[in-house]
Amino acid sequence: MAAALPPQRTVEGTPRLSLTGVSKRYGGVRAIRSADFTLMPGEVHAVVGENGAGKSTMIKIIAGAEYADTGTFEMDGEPVQVRSAAEALNMGIATVYQEAQLFGQLTVGENIFLGREKTQGARIDWAAQKKEVVDLLAAFGLPESFVTRKVEELSAAEQQQVSIAKALAEEAKILILDEPSAILTDAEIDNLFTAVRRLAAEGVSIIYITHRLDELFEICDVVTVMRDGETLGTFDIEHLSVGALADLMVGGEFAGSASTRDADSTGEVKLALHHLGSGRRFHDVSFEVRGGEVVVLYGLVGSGVAEIAGATYGMQSVTSGSMELLGRRFRPRSASEAQRAGLAMLPANRKKEGMFSFQPINFNISVGSLHLFRSLGVMMNRAKERTTADNLIKALSIKTPSQEQKISALSGGNAQKVVLARQLVNRPEVLVLAEPSQGVDIGAKDEIHKLIDEVCDEGTAVLVATSDLMEALRIADRLIVIRNGTTFTEFSRGVSQARVLAAASGELSAEDQAELAEGTHS
Ligand SMILES: Nc1ncnc2c1ncn2[C@@H]1O[C@H](COP(=O)(O)OP(=O)(O)OP(=O)(O)O)[C@@H](O)[C@H]1O
C-alpha cells in the first residue's frame, strides 16, 4: 500500500539554492527526471532514496561534476549555470565525496591551503596557516601533530575529516557531504555532527546524503526523498520517523526482519587465528569461527578491525602467530591465494579490490567461480551463468536494466551488491565480509543480512568486520570487540548496544567486570 505523504515543508525568504525541473539521462537510463530541490541558508538538508534513486546524480549536478539535460538553477535568487567543479567551488559549493580527494604526498596543512596559501609579502605565512589548521582540526578532535602528517599516512576516516576541514577553510556556502558517516564509528560521528552543527549555525547550508536513516533525526532539519529519479518532496524531519521515511523511499510499507537463526556453536572450526600479529597494526589476536556461526569483529576506527579481516584474505601482512583454514596452515599473501585455499571474501576497498569496472554484471558475478560454469573443458556454460546472475540480481534487488550492463554504470550501492553476489554463487566454506552493507539502502541491507543468515544456515563459517553497531548486533552470534589492535572482550547474541559501545571505547560496565572476574562473561 502506498504510504500517505506527510505535509511538505514551507519556505520563507530567498533560498540559498534552488533547482527546478532538472533531468539527466545516461544513454537509455533516466537517472533523474524533473527533480526539484530547494536549500535554505543554514539548514542541514538530507537527501535519501533507495540505491539507484538518483541522489548521486543530483549531487553531481549541483557540484558541477555533471551537466543537467534540462532544468533551472538559482543561487541566492539569481539564475546561475554551473559548468565545472571549479566553477562550483568558486561559487562556494564544496563537496566531500566518500573517497577523499586529497594529495597523499602532501601534508594535511599543505592540502588545506593548496592553491590559496596565506601570504605575508611574497612569502607563505606558515605560522598563520598552521594556527588556522590547528583550530580546524581541533573541531574534529584531531591532534595538532596532524598538521605536518602526510595525508597518505592517515586512515580513510581521518582523511575525510581533513576534507571537511578543507571545505571549512575554503569558506563554503554550501557543503555537500556524500555518505560521510559510512566509514566512521560512533565517536567520530559525534565529532562530525559537532562540526556540521557549527557550520549550520554560521549560515552554511549542508546537503547530507546517507543510508543510515536513524542519524538523520539527530542532525538534519529537513529531508528530500528521491524515488526512481524523481523528488517526492521535502519534509520537516520532526514530522517523520525512521519507519515512515523508509516507507516513503520504497513507496510502500517497509518491513525489516530480525534474525531468527539459532546460533550453532557445535560446527567444526573452519577458520582459526592463533596469537596473530601484524607489526604495530594488531597483535595477539586469537579466535575461531565455526561452520554455521557468524562472528563479528567490531571496533572504533583505528582499532585494527579492518586490518585483522584484511590479514585473513591476504591484504595485510602477518608478522607473528598463525592461522588455520579448514584444518590446514594458512598464510595467504594475496587475495587470490586466500581464494584458492577456500576462503570467499568481500574486501573493504571494493572499488580497488572487488570490481572489474568495464565488465558486465554477469561477468562480475561469475568471475569468482568460473569452474562452476565450465560445462565442457574450457567452455563456459552461458545459460547457467545467466540464470545464476538473474537469480542473484532478483534476490539482492540489484537495480539494472539488464545483466549485460557494465558495473561502472551502476549506482554505488548496486555495484556493491554485485560484488557480494559473486561470493554467494558458490556457497563457500568460509566467508569474510568487510563492511558488508556500507553504502547500500535500508531494504538491501536487510536482504544482505538475510543472505548472511542463509549461507550460515547451510554451514558456512562467516566472519564480518563492521563499524556499524546495529549491523553487528543484528547478525552476530558472537561479537568480538577489538580495541588497540587486540581482542578486548567478547559478547554473545542479545547483548545491549550500550555494553558493546562501552567496551569499544575501553570501558567495561560493572556487570561485565563482575562477569569477567567470575569467568562467566557472555
Ligand atoms: N555513468 C553512468 N552511466 C549509466 N548509468 C548511470 C551512470 N551513472 C548513474 N547511472 C544510473 O542512474 C541511476 C541513478 O544513479 P545514482 O548513482 O544517481 O543513484 P544513487 O541514488 O546515488 O544510488 P546509491 O545509493 O546506490 O549510490 C542508476 O540507475 C544508475 O545505474
TrEMBL record:
Q: Which GO terms describe its molecular function?
A: ATP binding
Q: Does the keyword Nucleotide-binding apply?
A: yes
- In this record, what's one Pfam family? ABC_tran
Q: Which residues form the ABC transporter domain?
A: 17-253, 260-509
What Gene3D superfamilies does UniProt report for this protein, alphabetically? P-loop containing nucleotide triphosphate hydrolases (3.40.50.300)
The UniProt keywords, alphabetically, are: ATP-binding, Cell membrane, Membrane, Nucleotide-binding, Repeat, Sugar transport, Translocase, Transport
The protein depicted here goes by the name: Sugar ABC transporter ATP-binding protein
Classification lineage: Bacteria, Bacillati, Actinomycetota, Actinomycetes, Propionibacteriales
